[in-house]
Structure formats: structure tokens, C-alpha cells
Design goal:
This protein has 3 helices and no strands. With about 60 residues, the chain is mainly alpha-helical. The protein is elongated, with a radius of gyration of 24 Å.
């Protein structure tokens, strides 16, 4: 038997909170745009990838 109408306490709390505070959703979108939705510079990314230094094989063993 599947419970189609079940909603956890956490889900109900978040849903009620967002209904009472709709500005939070807009704030989330604005902050997501700040950190994630940015144009990508492929040339800069290629330069960063090229500048990577390969790690040594086993870092916990000193082999002179």
C-alpha cells in the first residue's frame, strides 16, 4: 500500500514557511545567480587546467 498523500513534518514545515515568507524564494534565486549561474570563460579554464601540477604517487612515504 503506497501512501500518496504522506508529507513529512520537515516538508510540511518548509512548505508552510515558504508560503508565509515568499521573499525567501526570490532571495534564493538571487544568491544562486551570485555563485552558480555565471558565464564560463573556457580560455581561462583551459589555462587553469594547464597550470595544474601532477601530484606525487604516494604522499605519505618519503622516498629520497
Amino acid at each position: 500500500m503506497k501512501l500518496k498523500n504522506y508529507q513529512s513534518e520537515v516538508t510540511a514545515f518548509i512548505k508552510d514557511f515558504l508560503d508565509q515568507h515568499p521573499e525567501v524564494v526570490e532571495k534564493q534565486k538571487r544568491h544562486r545567480a551570485t555563485w552558480w549561474d555565471r558565464p564560463q570563460d573556457l580560455q581561462e579554464q583551459a589555462e587553469l587546467d594547464e597550470a595544474q601540477v601532477a601530484p606525487k604517487g604516494y604522499v605519505y612515504y618519503h622516498n629520497p
